[in-house]
């Protein structure tokens, strides 16, 4: 056995682990990084990157079909699904060097491509190595949760891991789960030419504000996506190419392929956490607000920590841990300024409190303003007029923003900045936006907050009349 001692040991080289490793090593710490499978983790190999690349193929097909609205003869695209998958792989390949062993070794990180597991509360074994470290970071991510639905194990099914190997377009795709994975992949396959049915046990896009989710769901339905809500898959039958899913209510749906997208399970099984005194919860590793586990020398970050499961959250956690583990600062992880976006078309994005959460917290002291895309001239010019932005305001400051519409994921950055810096609505109206941009939506939403105060105030009218009388 090779014994290694270092300042920081990181288990898992995905979004979270890589960010900690890069930061800590470049600040001079002696860092060891373990990865049992692919550098870059889920986001690069099976998640964000391939899904967004496939969505772009689907958008292109959709643009060809709908070109008529811009005066261009529409055509039914010849979709080459295998070529679209090649495009997906080449996007992964283009990004992969950023997450590569070579790049991290260049930072001075010792990368060991082995699975890590605790053998005591201070030691981790990875292959022939036993590693002790001043601090340990668990960043092992999550995997697709495969529910114990009777019959599921007897039919071929896809998850976000195996989907990328498929080279032939599914003729009829059934998606179980109407969360972000299910809805993004359902629309992409619909636009690429599959017939797609989504079976959702509760409400589709149910983690978002229902008013905003409805904008997206209405559009998806109008494109031809079948979305069946309150439809829990309870039994599965059939064989390759002929799969049947029965719901609790007894409805039967038939398809050639099945995608299971019903959430995630934290990757803790192989870590032998009990040997290190690290406790888990129903959703992942138990952490405090400093991301420390029940073993005070060990942190858990990203998906495995069981909270919000996004790449940018894993990256944010990494920053918190670097401050705490490298500088001993009392850094805490917060969630109230974390945005998220679902990359359907139109997109759906949120930061801070939803309207329902804000009403519960602030009651009558809450103002809610809305501004619709169809009042934005750029949206009109490009015919992306579906959607709205909604801002929740308390005592002159935004406490939440929700956007459903074209590029909502881009526009939420603005409100994420405002919330992270506790800006006032006045700071937003003082900005001048170039015309015509979608960004004007943000300023106009803020203007909607002030306009009743300005245009419906008898006091303002009195002052204006008085000043006008005396002005030379
Ligand atoms: C289809 C899909 C689309 C997504 N799209 C988005 C998106 O658009 N935007 C967004 O923000 N998020 C998205 N996500 C979520 C995002 O991928 C995750 O939140 C993110 O990857 C979490 O990063 P992580 O570092 O916690 O884990 P991961 O990136 O999963 O990395 C964990 C790594 O640890 C390794 N590992 C596990 N156990 C061990 C062990 N014992 N020893 C050594 N190595 C180990 C794994 O092999 C893996 O490489 C998507 C997810 C999916 C599935
Ligand atoms: N754009 C993004 O940022 C993005 C994209 C994809 C995934 N992600 C991350 O990955 C996580 C996991 O995504 P997900 O979509 O798998 O999970 P999810 O938990 O968000 O949604 C799963 C859905 O499946 C439904 N469901 C569960 N069991 C069912 C059954 N038997 N029959 C029918 N429906 C059932 C649930 O009601 C739920 O709505 C997300 O929460 C998100 O954090 C992010």
From TrEMBL:
Gene3D superfamilies: 3.30.390.30, FAD/NAD(P)-binding domain (3.50.50.60). Disulfide bonds join 43-48. NAD(+) binds at residues 177-184, 200, 263. Residues 338-444 form the Pyridine nucleotide-disulphide oxidoreductase dimerisation domain. One of its GO terms (molecular function) is flavin adenine dinucleotide binding. Keywords: Disulfide bond, FAD, Flavoprotein, NAD, NADP, Nucleotide-binding, Oxidoreductase, Pyruvate, Redox-active center. Pfam families: Pyr_redox_2, Pyr_redox_dim. FAD binds at residues 52, 116, 140-142, 303. This is Pyruvate/2-oxoglutarate dehydrogenase complex, dihydrolipoamide dehydrogenase (E3) component. It comes from Thalassococcus halodurans.
């Amino acid at each position: 056995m090779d014994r290694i001692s270092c300042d920081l040991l990181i288990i898992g080289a995905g979004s979270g682990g890589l960010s900690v490793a890069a930061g800590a090593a470049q600040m001079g710490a002696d860092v060891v990084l373990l990865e049992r499978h692919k550098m870059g983790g889920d986001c690069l190999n099976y998640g964000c990157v391939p899904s967004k690349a496939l969505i772009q193929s689907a958008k292109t097909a959709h643009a060809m079909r709908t070109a008529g609205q811009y005066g261009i003869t529409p055509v039914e695209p010849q979709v080459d699904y295998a070529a679209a998958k090649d495009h997906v792989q080449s996007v992964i390949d283009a990004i992969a060097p950023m997450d590569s062993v070579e790049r991290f070794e260049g930072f001075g990180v010792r990368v060991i491509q082995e699975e890590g597991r605790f053998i005591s509360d201070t030691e981790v074994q990875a292959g022939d190595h036993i590693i002790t470290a001043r601090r340990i970071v668990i960043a092992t991510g999550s995997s697709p949760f495969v529910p114990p639905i009777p019959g599921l194990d007897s039919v071929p099914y896809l998850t976000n891991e195996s989907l990328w190997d498929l080279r032939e377009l599914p003729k009829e795709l059934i998606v179980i789960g109407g969360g972000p994975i299910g809805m993004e992949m359902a629309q992409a396959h619909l636009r690429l030419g599959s017939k797609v049915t989504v079976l959702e046990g509760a409400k589709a896009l149910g983690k978002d504000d229902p008013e905003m989710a409805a904008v997206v769901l209405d559009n998806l339905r109008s494109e031809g996506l079948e979305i069946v809500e309150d439809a829990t898959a309870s039994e599965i039958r059939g064989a390759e190419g002929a799969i049947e899913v029965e719901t609790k209510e007894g409805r039967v749906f038939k398809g050639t392929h099945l995608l299971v997208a019903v959430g995630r399970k934290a990757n803790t099984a192989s870590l032998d956490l009990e040997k290190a005194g690290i406790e888990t919860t129903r959703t992942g590793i138990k952490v405090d607000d400093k991301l420390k586990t029940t073993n005070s020398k060990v942190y858990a970050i990203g998906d495995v920590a069981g909270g919000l499961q996004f790449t940018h959250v894993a990256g944010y956690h990494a920053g918190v841990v670097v401050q705490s583990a490298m500088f001993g600062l009392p850094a805490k992880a917060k969630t109230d300024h974390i945005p998220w976006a679902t990359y359907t078309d139109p997109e759906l994005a949120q930061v801070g409190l939803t309207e329902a959460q804000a009403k519960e917290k602030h009651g009558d002291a809450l103002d809610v303003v809305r501004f619709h895309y169809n009042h934005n001239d750029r949206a009109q010019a490009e015919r992306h007029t579906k959607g709205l932005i909604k801002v929740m305001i308390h005592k002159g400051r935004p406490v939440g923003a929700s956007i459903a519409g074209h590029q909502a994921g881009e526009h939420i950055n603005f409100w994420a900045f405002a919330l992270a810096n506790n800006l006032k609505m006045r700071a937003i109206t003082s900005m001048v936006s170039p015309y015509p941009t979608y960004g004007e939506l943000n300023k106009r939403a803020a203007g909607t907050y002030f306009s009743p105060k300005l245009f419906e105030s008898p006091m303002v009218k009195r002052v204006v009349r008085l000043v006008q009388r005396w002005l030379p």
